[in-house]
Each structure stands twice: as structure tokens, then as C-alpha cells.
Amino acid sequence: ALLPVLQSAAPREDVPRALEELEQQDVLDVYLSLWRGELERAEDGLRAALGEDGARDPPLDLEPLKVEVARRLGGFPVDSKPKMDGMRASLLELAHPDFQIPAGAEGQVFRALLEAKSAKRVSAVVAKLKTVWSKMGCIAKLSGEKPSTAPVGNDRLLMAVRALAAEHAVPLRAWRFLAAGKARGPWRVAEDDSPATVERQWQALLNFVRAEDSVLLYHLENHYSLVYAAREWHADKGYGGKRDVRQVLVAKPGQQPCCWIDFESVRATLLG
Question: Quick one: pLDDT band at residue 3, thresholds 50, 70, 90?
Fold first, then answer.
């Protein structure tokens, strides 16, 4: 099942075989570009909830609304899970007759909010604004004085690899190898996998560890690590029985190989 994937990822003769050396900021810029695109789409969703049909040129300016909401919530978002308690109350306050709507273009977004309230679309506006707030927090986390990739996650990591490959014209590909739940991958992990299925999964992992043109990344809890090596042996199980011990070498914590983890623990993390 893996062979076609490996063949399609083989380097071609007419393109470079490796990425040029990248600085940390080069990678952060790719993630920031992805998140800014997501923020733009989230803002379009908020405009639609406010009643804009997308034909306005220029589009409805959301900045005055963001500023007023941030003032009521204690500031703009600074991480990927920003404080959003009180967002509905803030919007209702801004849609109250006592709120002094600014004159001119700056007041357009508040007038749109009043119309949304009259049309009973406040819940939709709240939901879309929360999405915008979350995207803004992720961008802040990635672009702070001490940037963090905590908001990235598997999907955007895969997207970043595709973006880097396209930008630098190299045949670099990434995909989920072992997947569980709704995630897709060539090897599916389930709680009721038979010993034979687990054996096939392990052998497939060994093939990747041995391969010279690929690497495996393991997404632990709040941490990514290379899979540096794998080992297995038969151990006594008691009363004359034997058990298979299968382990992978990862970096936990930090980014230096230092910890052997049982393959069953890897499977449990994926299933968790």
C-alpha cells in the first residue's frame, strides 16, 4: 500500500533534490502566510454574518468593531486560545441605542451590526467574530517577540510542506502515515486492530525508518519529534511465554534523541 506513495515521491532528474538551508523565520513566514489567509476568510465570514454580500468595494471595514470589542475584553488576542468570555455581551452593548456610532465610514460596521441584531443574526455574528479572534490570536503567537508554533498542528504542517516545496521547486511531500479517527492515512489505527494488523503497521514504520529519502515525525502531546530509530526484541512474558517489544527513539523533551517509547504507546497517543 505504501509503494505507490514512495514512488510518486521519488526525486526527478530535472529539479533540485534538497531544500536550501532555511532560517527559523523562513518557516515562521510560511505559517504566518497560511494563518493570514485563514484570517481573511474568517473576516469574509464575519462580513457575511453582518449582511454584506461580497459585492462592496472596498469591503466593510471591521477594524472599528475589533477595537471596540478588544476594549471591552481587555485587549486584542495574544495566543491561540484567547479570552472570549463576554463577546456576546460586548456586541450587544455596541448594538444598543445608547452606543454612540461614529460618523462616516468608521460607523458602517456598527450600523451593519444594528441591522444584524434587528434580523436576529447576533448569534451568527458572535460565532464568526470568535473565529476571527482565534485566528488573530494564532498570528500573534507566531509573530511575537518569542514566537511559538503552538497554533500550527498537523494540517497546517502538511500545508506548509506543500508551500515550501512549491516555493523552492523541490519534490518534497508530506502526509499522515498512521492515522486514527477521522484523519486519513495509508495506515489506519483502531482499538480493535488484530495482532497481525499491528505487525503490518510496525513493519511499515520500520520501512520508513530505514528509508534514506524520508523521515517520520511523531506528534506527541504538545510536541513534535523526529523518529530517530526503531528496535524490537522478544522478551519473557512469564510462565514460558514470550512477548514482542517494539520501540521507537524520540526526543522527549527537547529535540535530541533520548527516549524510547513503546509502539503501543504511539498507537495509544494516536487513538487518544
Answer: very low
pLDDT band with cut points at 50, 70 and 90 for residue 19 = low
Q: Tell me which residue of 34, 105, 114 sits closest to 63, measured CA to CA.
A: 105
CA distance 140 to 118: 34
Q: How many Å apart are CA 213 and CA 197, to the nearest integer?
A: 25
How many whole angstroms separate alpha carbon 108 and alpha carbon 90?
17
**Residue owning grid cell 506527541:** 220
Please tell me the pTM assigned to this model: 0.80
Give the SS3 label for residue 24: helix
Rounded to whole angstroms, how far apart are CA atoms 235 and 241?
A: 9
**Separation of first and last alpha carbons in the chain:** 25
Considering Cα of 44, then 33, then 213, then 207, what sign does the dihedral take?
negative
- Cβ burial, residue 60 (10 Å; 0-12/13-18/19+): buried
Amino acid letter, residue 135: K
Contact 248, 229 (CB under 8 A): yes
- From the number of C-beta atoms within 10 Å of its C-beta (0-12, 13-18, 19+), residue 238 rates as exposed
pLDDT tens by residue, 30-84: 999 999 999 999 999 999 999 998 777 889 999 999 999 999 999 999 988 898 9
Residue the block writes with cell 482565534 = 134
Question: What residue has cell string 524490537?
Answer: 232
Q: ∠246-248-251 over CA atoms, to 5°?
A: 155
> How far is residue 62's CA from residue 135's CA, in Å, rounded to a whole number?
14
For the stretch 156-209, pLDDT in tens is 999 999 998 888 888 888 999 998 888 888 899 999 999 999 999 999 999 999
